[in-house]
Amino acid sequence: MDYQPQKLEKLAQLLEQHSPHEGLNYTPIENLGTFKASAPQERIPALEIPGIVIVVSGKKACYLGNETHVYEAGKVLVGFYPVPAEMEIVKASPEEPYLVAGIYLDMNRMADMLLRIDRFDEAAPQPAAREPSVFYAADLSDRLLDSFIRMFEALENPRDAAILGQSMMDEVYYRLLCDEHGGELRALLQQKGKIQRISKAVDYIHSNLDKPVSVEKLAEVVYMSRTAFYSNFRDVMQVSPLQYAKSVKLHEAQRLIKEGKKINEASFLVGYNNLAQFSREYKRHFGFVPSAT
Q1: Going along 49-97, which residue ranges are E strands?
Q2: b/e per residue 218-245 (b: at least 16 CB within 10 A)
């Protein structure tokens, strides 16, 4: 354990104050929010958004391909890209809810902070060898915990939140990259191979949801052979490129339907020209038909 338990308790109290609703709660500081669940939730498909997450109580499991990532108190987790996975809240109650503080991850901001650190440091820490991954997890440290506490304390004063919020968020990125286990995270970000190319393919998918997707086209976008691209994508994302694209499209369609779009319009906007096929794949993915959304 790298943090003082009383500090985690203090953050938990602050999060309760700023979590008036079940589910996602936004704060006046841009990209800072909380998530609260007061009861276990069964395993369901979800699109995990990029973020820096600190768990203060409860427990959640994220199932990604053959991997299981556990979100529990005392851990910080970083997700680099939107990831289709299955989520299950396995430990939560009204007395001890599943409660987290989260920052939407800005990769450009993190990369800029990394460059600033590297310009100052003569020698970066040498981490243990590690395969590229869309997830990074480590034990909390006092310094990172302190950064989150200060940010949530700033919410008590609208002027503090408005003027100091973003500089406090920069501190979170800084502490995360400089902590004892930050060398592994820095190594992941500095890799010049798989993860950067896969990131470009992921960006292409999200920017072209209304277009058909093929492995050949994605491989062309990242200047790789079809075979190498397919293998590298699965290594990093734990799903095939087409499985990833289909999941992202279906989650976007679900969002559009919830916002009031007609089913045929939502299906067209995510690249489906056949409504029957869309309905079949939607039901297979979510377990219910689009009209039940």
Answers
A1: 51-57, 59-64, 67-72, 75-79, 83-91
A2: bbebbebeeeebbebbbebbbbebeebb
> To 5 degrees, how large is the angle CA 13–CA 103–CA 60?
70
Q: Looking up tokens 């994605």, which residue turns up?
A: 218
Which residues does 105 contact at the CB level (< 8 Å), separation at least 6? 50, 51, 52, 78, 79, 80
Class of residue 64 by CB neighbours under 10 A (exposed 0-12, middle 13-18, buried 19+) = buried
Helix runs in the chain, H state only:
5-17, 107-120, 142-154, 158-178, 182-190, 194-207, 215-221, 226-237, 241-258, 263-269, 275-286
What integer pLDDT is reported at residue 233 of this predicted model?
86
Domains in the chain, please, with CATH? 5-190 (2.60.120.10), 194-292 (1.10.10.60)
C-alpha 29/C-alpha 132 separation (Å) is: 31
Q: What is the pTM of this model?
A: 0.74
Give the CA-trace dihedral at 181, 132, 105, 55, to 10 degrees.
Answer: -50
> How many other CB atoms are there within 10 angstroms of residue 216's CB atom?
10
**How confident is the model at residue 123, as a pLDDT?**
54
**What is d(CA 6, CA 4) in angstroms, rounded to the nearest whole number?**
6
φ/ψ of 251, rounded to 5, equals -65, -35
Q: The tokens 């987790």 sit on which residue?
A: 77
Q: Quick one: pLDDT at residue 129? A: 47
Residue ranges in the chain modelled with pLDDT below 70: 1-3, 121-134, 181, 187-196
Token digits of residue 273: 């020209």
The β-bridge relationship of strands 83-91 and 41-48 is antiparallel
Task: Enter the DSSP assignment of 128.
Answer: P
| pLDDT at residue number 26 | 94
